[in-house]
Amino acid sequence: MPKPDLDSAYALSGTEEARDFYKDWATDYDRDFAEARGYRSPSEVARVFRAAARGDEPVLDVGAGTGLIGQAMAGVEIDALDLSPEMLAVARRKGVYRDLIAADLTGPLALPDGAYGGVVSAGTFTHGHVGPACLPELLRITRPGALFVCTVVPEVYDSAGFGSSLALLVAQGRITPVRFDDFAIYDHADDAHADARGLIMTFRRL
User: What CATH number corresponds to the domain at position 25?
Assistant: First the structure.
């Protein structure tokens, strides 16, 4: 079986394929992907969130993977949600999460209304992964004023319909207008994705 890599991740289609893929990648993900490429998305999300946060309400890390955002947000009351139990097992060993939840973002979440005061996410809204259809469910489980700080790949923002979905939520009075911050995803990747840029979307639930 080929070794998991970024191109394979971008080519995923469907929940079961993604679950199997990350089961195989979980053990080596931090070393072979995050460290090898200088993956900046988690630390950038943490930086933006800390700068905008108003209090100490619990936060949900959506698509938490191996817990890189949790590490970058040490000291924050934060839960991890991810499709892959194996990735969450790696995150658990880091000791930074209050709770770890294995769940599929493409369906209803077994979480109560208004459970969280913030949502963070890095690397989930990308090629072959999750689209904007999950946003109403994430709004359901957050409180009024909840801060959302999430990365999205620019091409996916356009092709998956994030722009129109967010515009509708703004028009419906469900979220504030979205602020976008551009950033370099990698510090020292040396392949076709070396110069990849990401967007950080920041908004609040109304």
Answer: 3.40.50.150
Q: Is residue 163 part of a domain?
A: yes
Q: What is the number of domains present in the chain? A: 1
What is the DSSP code (8-state) at residue 157? H
**Has residue 1 been placed in a domain?**
no
- CA-based torsion, 194, 196, 202, 205: positive or negative: negative
Residues in contact with 9: Cβ distance below 8 Å, sequence separation at least 6, in sequence order: 21, 25, 127, 128, 129
For helices 15-25 and 85-94, angle between their N-to-C axes, nearest 10 degrees: 40
Q: Among 10, 2, 6, which Cα is nearest to 126's?
A: 10
Q: What is the pLDDT of residues 138-152, one digit of tens each?
A: 999 999 999 999 999
User: Three-state DSSP class for 155?
Assistant: helix
pTM: 0.94
Q: Which residues pair with 62 in a beta bridge?
A: 81
- Torsion sign (Cα): 202, 49, 103, 37: positive
**φ, ψ of residue 165 in degrees (nearest 5):** -65, -45
159: Cβ contacts below 8 Å, ≥ 6 apart: none
